[in-house]
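Kindly go through one protein, given below as sequence and tokens. The question is how this chain folds according to its tokens.

***
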Amino acid sequence: MPASPSTARAINDRLALRLLQQEGPLTAGQLKQLTGLSRPTVADLVDRLTASGLITVVGESGAQRRGPNARLYGIVADRAHLAALDVRTEGVLVLVSDLLGRVLAEASVPIDGDTGTGPAVEQAVTAVENAVKEAGAMGAPPREGAGGWGRLHTVGIGAPGLIDPATGDLRDSAGLPAWHRSLAATLQERLPGARVTVENETNLAALAEQREGAARDRDTFVLLWLGHGVGAAVVLDGTLRRGASGGTGEIGFLPVPGTDTLPSAGDCAGGFHSLTGAAAVVSLAGEHGLPAPATADGPGAAEVVRGAVADVPAVTDVPVGAVATAAAGAAPARFLRALADRVAVGVASVVAVLDPGCVVLGGEVGQAGGAVLAGLVEERLRRMSPLVTEVRASTLGGTAVLRGALLTARDRAQDELFAPPERSGV
């Protein structure tokens, strides 16, 4: 059944807007070439998008060219502002951008573990408000005919723990601060014009790695997050899989050999977390005589791993699995091999069930280990599994959650702003 004229226009408009976002400013001729649409159709959509305030003339192409055919059209970046939050056990990172993803303001606020729920939420919300004000996205007067121009449109939050697939709310999780669950609701109250969404931090990291990082060429892969805690995100055929209860990837609870007990419904002690969480990594380093970091959290564990990698002599034109042979008896090499053996236990379990073909080691520890740790895990995995699996190091590391939150906020804003006028509500 052919599309109605209004549906066809909406499809063409969204296609043009996506191209302008991905490619930057384009002329009407370039839009015609890239979309395959006729010249009159492109002229109509350019007029329509300009009238709606979504695009504008930003210059001309070519020093010698002048006139309508040379006009460069670009997305109006301040049509909406976006905020992204990386909510951690010890604080919050905040980023505010325009619709094209250009960063306008950043903020961070540490929150002590003994801070009460009310004060902790107030500190976090104040940090967001200050960043939004700095970016000029709060209280800006709307432009004529475009209600909400320049205002904060969407807030994307990445947080540890399970997200209820029915409500989109963060579920109560043992070991996580109580203020995490109150933050989204308070932000919605204080920023009533914004749309607030919450997503599991590891899922956001996977989306960022797929769009901007180590998995750009993969439709199917698993991200293994190695930081303060451990988690996994599963992307199959280009789609993030959350599971019936939103718990896909809760690999910290995976029962594994090498622990003294079994995990329980409310505590992952005894699971894969006990082998590869930050505290376990720091403890393993101590067993191999490596100096202890100041803290046994994600950054502390990453510091130990980064130091061990730096102490292992570089090997050129040799399989990464042989990276430690030049110093087989050295403590850093032994530590990295022991850590790789632990990581490979969890990876082998995931591979046996999903056969993703690619596993990305993310988080602070995954990034710190780089190609060395990824190569050692892949070498160990080859001896444990008949399924060929490439193991890669994250290219985004600890910033992946914030990037993923920003990307999802931008996607949601665009879904609304780029929709036909009768559906957009803007």
The longest helix spans residues 331-354. The chain is about 40% helix and 15% strand.
